[in-house]
Amino acid sequence: MMNPNGASSSDGDGASHSSSALKKNSKKPKYSRFSQQELPACKPILTPGLVISTFVVVSFLFIPIGLVSLFASERVVEIKERYDEDCIPSNYTKNVVGYIQSNETNKTCVKKFTVPKKMKSPVFIYYQLDNFYQNHRRYVKSRSDKQLQSKAFEDETETCKPEDSADKSPIVPCGLIAWSLFNDTYRFSVKNAALNVSKRDIAWKSDRQHKFGSDVYPKNFQSTGLIGGAKLTTSIPLSQQEDLIVWMRTAALPTFRKLYGKIEVDLEADDEVTVVIENNYNTYSFGGRKRLVLSTTTWIGGKNDFLGIAYISIGGICLFFAISFILLYVIKPRPLGDPSYLSWNKNTAANMK
Description:
Pfam families: CDC50 (PF03381)
Main location: membrane
Keywords: Membrane, Transmembrane, Transmembrane helix
InterPro entries: CDC50/LEM3_fam
Subcellular location: Membrane
Number of strands: 11
């Protein structure tokens, strides 16, 4: 049937269907103020006053924070002694690897140092290792977290090779990290009186409660083959063996410290501390170094001058920029939003000349 304009009704139906199909297949997003970027926005104008004020505020905040942090770090009393070289007998200076690997050599070493300032308890004892790459990919992966958490996963040792089994029985804890557990020991005394070293709560609480099971006990650990480090007491669950828990939290850098224990009495200034060291751990074969560190803490933690220096440096730079902009604004001012500084206006002025 024809309509008065001469077009068929079927043509009109086809056009409406095609337009509806186009709308249905259109990828045009639904209109919203967010999609059209019409939401209110803050567009600050960087006036000289705003820029100078910002630099001044940052400098006045950062410099005091840096000074307080630096002062807190300076209050920390720290004693650091390297002992891996001093504990080598003179007849083994040319064969240090043979000395440390032998079961017949005497590993006992005595060192003395003087306390420079009063050290209030608790005094934290750390061992520091240099040139020891705990962050090596194969070393980090050589452990079984499932095995550490529950006795039910004792046989989960696929990731622990080559320290996965002994005599066809799984090693608990397995892997190179546990196998290389630090085994130097320290005994302290002042004026011939022994100082008790507490190892309670030296590991993270979350590690003790969630990562190391109370029903997991050492099994076949350091029993055969090459001995890598310390041995573990088979009657104590892994959740209570805090030396192991501290060691298993691998370090990100080749120089690191790990907490050995705490001395829970004050050490007076000028006290002479005697340390009996059992120098058992082999760092000589890879050029490593060992240090004993005694340190107090403040609200900022241990001794760390970097944080204070960083704050002071940033604050000083901001203060320098603030003063520079003030001088520039005073000596050579210019109107805000002057169109003569636009590039096309500069080009026009140059062509007119």
